[in-house]
Amino acid sequence: MYLWKIDKLVDDFRQKKVSQKEQFKYLLLFTIFTLLCSDPFLYVGLPYNNYDTLQSILILAMSVFGVYYCYKINSQGDNKEFMIRFICLGLPAVIRILAMFLPFFVGAIIIEDLFLLSPEALVSGATETTLIQVATISLFVFVYYWYLSKKITIVSRCAAPNKPSV
Predict the structure, then answer these.
(1) Which of 71, 77, 111, 126 has a CB 3.0–4.6 Å from the CB of 24, allowing a cystine?
(2) 149 touches 73 (CB < 8 A)
């Protein structure tokens, strides 16, 4: 794995020397790096509490497990084109899950605003992360990876029909 010598990686890709397993490692590290680097910027200028820490840990753990699970599903099928499938199927999957979750998100916001947040917090807009938000976002991330893994299963099984379905 090359983390600095990108020209060597380019050569390996040109010579078709980068295996599916190696591509998975890059995707996993990219996912971890992106989450760790972007997460602190989400809280700049906002109140931070223990629920923010919990949410960050849960999203990181579910993302690492989700990427790994999708990779394993793909490798149990035809073991081809994992990154292409992950990215190309991931976009419509996240759009579909967002559309599905929109009423759920709106309901959670209404419940939170009516019953959990103080009037001062609502007026100032300086609300802290709540357990409902952590649960809602965590459920969204879980459902996304579950749904994506199901679609990857279908694609990878079509090319390898003699393997049993998971």
Answers:
(1) 71
(2) yes
Cα-based angle 76, 80, 84 (whole degrees, multiple of 5):
120
> Model confidence over 19-68: pLDDT tens digits?
989 999 999 999 998 888 888 777 777 778 899 999 999 999 999 999 99
CA-derived radius of gyration, the chain: 20
Judge whether 152 and 98 are in contact, CB under 8 Å.
no
For the chain, counts of helices (H) and of strands (E): 6, 0
Q: Where are the domains of the chain?
A: 19-158
Q: Is 9 in contact with 2 (CB distance < 8 Å)?
A: yes
Q: Shortest CA distance to 23 belongs to which of 8, 44, 9?
A: 9
Amino acid identity for residue 109 in this structure: I
- Can you tell me the distance from the alpha carbon of 43 to that of 47, in angstroms, rounded to the nearest whole number? 7
127 neighbors 46 (Cβ within 8 angstroms)? no
Structure tokens at 124: 């100032």
Look-up: residue for tokens 């300086």?
A: 126
Lowest mean pLDDT among 32-41, 74-83, 97-106: 32-41
